[in-house]
Amino acid sequence: MDVLWLSLAFVLGLVLRHLGQPPLVGYLAAGFMLNAFGQHGNELLEQVAHAGVLLLLFSVGLKLRIKSLARPEVWGGGLLHLLAGSALLGLVALAVLDLPAWQGLLLVTTLGFSSTVLAAKVLEEKAELRAFHGRLAVGILIIQDLVALALMAFAGAASPSPWALLALALPLLGADERRAIGGGVALADAPIGLIGPGTGLGVSGLVWSGQRWLPLQTEGGHVSFAATSEREWALSRVLQRRFGHVSPERLLSGPGLVNLYTALAELDAWPAPALQPAQITARGLAATCPHCREALDLFCAALGTAAGNLALSLGARGGVYIGGGIVPRLGDFFDRSAFRARFEAKGRFSAYLAAIPTWVITAENPALRGVATALA
Length: 376
Description:
This protein is of the alpha/beta class.
């Protein structure tokens, strides 16, 4: 299916170019359209996109001279652009994100990374990259990127993972930015767990140092999957034949939903049409496909087991949060699922887990607050 999506983006790019507009607009339009229809790219598409950005930057480097970056109009313009843009966006961050002034400025300074590739592509398409104004514009943006990189390196030598950044945002979430699943009361300054199915399975958490929250960078999505029912044991054997090692990520992710769906088909010997994760989710929620529905049921239950394991491993009596792009889309279905029952189903420690709250993150772009905290 990724070939079809790439073809659509290519066609829209050609149409926009024929109309005298930057093809980049067509590529963006294709992405917006597919997202609106519930389509999401897989890991292959992500890799192709990253490779395209890297090759574009490489081509830009071939056409620029290093000494051109040393010109006063370039580095001076870059610094001026960075300061002016940071000040303006900083005011927006203060109003929208309700951050301290210095955290907001650190955050918006790093947003300068997003413009170089877009500007270079537009200039290249107009054959203006070698012109004076083209070299000046890209040089200014490169200087801006270098300053932002230096600022990030100064703020913290080690770059937290995306899930560690999201974890840093958890204590900042308001009551209206999370949805409780089950009961329990969080203990102050106790460890907090985070698990999130998306393109993969992210796992992180927070521990209190006595002065601040410290995020955990883990690979918890790649531990061994723990089956707790005959059905899960049978499915895990199917997946073991495919992959060898079966981790929770093989089931609890977008590709994991597809694995569950096709494993059910192999186990029960029914023909499985090729479906994307979004299609499995939509048909399961609408109850138009019993196999998709079972895949969602198994997904929610297995996520409960994984979240309970995380809570016990961390002693996460400050609560466990569910992030990622899949669970928020499940809505009330997830609330009614076996997630919470499986979260608490730990034998002698069921009462321990029953006292731990679990929440689905509903905030928009919460990781931005985590970025600001990491840069502080």
